[in-house]
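Treating backbone geometry as a discrete language has practical consequences that deserve illustration. The sequence in question and its structure tokens are set out directly beneath this paragraph.
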Amino acid sequence: MRHTFIILFTLLYSLAAVGQRQCGTAVALQQRVIEHPYLQQVIDNNEKNMLRWQQLRSMRPQARAATTNQAVTIPVVVHIVLDDPDLVTDVQVMSQIAVLNQDYNASNPDVSMVPPVWQPVIGNTRISFCLAQRTPGDEPTTGIVRVKTTAGRSYDISGGAPDVKYDQYGGSDAWDTQKYLNIWVTRLSGNFLGVAAPPGVGYPSQQEGVVILYSAFGTSGSVGRVYNLGRTTTHEIGHYFGLKHIWGDDGGSCAIDDGITDTPLQGDNTYGCPAFPKMDNCSPGFPGIMFMNYMDYTDDACMHLFTAGQAGRMRDVLENTVASLMSSNGCTPVVLPDNDAALVAVNGASGKRCDNRILPEVTLRNKGTRPLTSVRIQYRLNNGTPVSYDWQGNLASLQSVKVTLPATRVTVGAYNLQAYTQQPNGLPDANAANDTSSSRFHYDTEVQLPFEEGFEQDSFPPPGWDIYNPDFSFTWERDRNTGHNSNASALVRNKGYNVNDQTDDLITPVLDAQGHDSVFLFFDVAAAVYSDPDMLANVWDTLQVLVTKDCHQTTALAYSKWGKNLITRPTATKDEFVPTQNEWRRDSVDLTALVGKDKFQVVFRNISNAENNIYIDNIRIVTKDILPDLRKAGVLIHPNPTDGIVWISFYERPDDLLQVNLYNAGGQLVASKAGNAIGANNRMTFNLVNEPNGVYFVKLIYRNRANTIKLMKVR
């Protein structure tokens, strides 16, 4: 569960202005600082850099003039993520680009409505925007990506609305944020019109950009009232380029400025469309506050300018933090050659391999105008001898096909597989730069049982282990200062997650039980929660143990604990949990039924719900053999003689067992159980404690046979 005070903070902030402009940028950034306190230093350092650049500009006016006079055009990709992506038309998207080009170049018709007192400080960033003409893979594009979501899906601005920015969460993956400005257009929850994830403040690079409510984007189509002139996107891109709200987000006081010298002090945001002049507690005299600035909250029709100081800061961020946007070729149209075969991916040979037989699969794409009918594809491992495959087919322009290459076998080690194309249609390739694709994988030594791991080595994951971290966020790590009767352990910092239900797996090497009858796992665990452990209907962090026999493609659950069943500190912990030596527990798991006689891996799975840390340590996986008589006979009744409790153990679980009957010496039925009553340990239990001493008979009734075994009961 998300931390309660964060939820309340966001809720109160949102409800304060229902029906009015609401920007989520400052809220999202404050939430990230609460959840990741180290980010405050990152934000502070970024602000210091911007102030330093501002001072340098003021000291070198000629250099500043030369810089600001340099016109640049930034390629934009618009991701429309809606249950009906066609709700935002191409015309609506182009109307928004037109607004940006006017607003950022001070050529908007309503700039004339800026009061005369502030006409001299109107800023021109000399930044223009274009819809991208080429993809990151150098193919033609409209610069518009449409993704269909589930009906009514809306996105939370927490963390900068990260879910809308990933394919795997129903959103749309960012295009290279060093070359494109990414704009996501979608539904936002909580009455927010937009949120920015600026560069330089600690957001993952693949999340940088802005998210805009679809009904506040552009000037036509699905756009609503009041926020219908495209100024929400102008505002959020201002945040992207380093601008704060004009009032400094200080809650109505005059303590914090926006860092720009030519914007007057302002106490709080402004709604609606007030008359000039408008004074407040921070600017009580004429001309009052600059409510018509794009970084206030007034209606679109009353927003008219950036100041020269704001324009300078945005140029500083562009030229120092995301300078690569200025040299991007994203606005340059693509001219396709006649013959161009490209490899865009290598599959089937990446990460950890559990089989030494490698069967590479490449994605071949025709980036030429002519149909691709033949091409030679080669691959090599660690610069070894190339393996060749001559592909033939009929692949249309800008279409792809998966091609399986000849198999090979590898020995233990790490590998770089490099695949490349030659001679498309029997002719030289017009663009050799896209011919090659590569993938790295490793094949590790299989481990025989018993197996132990205490995470004492510096390397993590340990040799032969692997980590599955699909969201590229918090995951398993080594704590070199905390362990159970040791110096180290493995943990996941669930308290730091800002998205619920994220799964992270820590996976053992491939283990070989060598035909042993039973396999058991023992490990130490320590865990705590942020919320009250007695809270009802809460969603808790979960620790699971699973078994995989196909290199993590499929898994079987062996252990799952959460909440009060998992924690080792019985009370809620608001600080990050670090266990004492008395706050560890030894857990055991019988893996026999899931392992069978096969090679396997054990998966330690953390499912985060933002509670607190989970630690594991002193992992031990051992085998245990059954009685030799059971191995020989297949079924064993023991102890025999018995004094009460008797077990019927099976070496292998019989598929055709129908029933087991227990008779006394007189032939009377004493007890009976169905054949499917065999437990997980291949054992069935009978209780003769209240029966007299003497001879008994156990009759096992199979589908096409029966087996009777004599049993003695003695005191």
Notes: The chain has four domains: 22-248+309-325, 341-443, 447-624, 628-713.
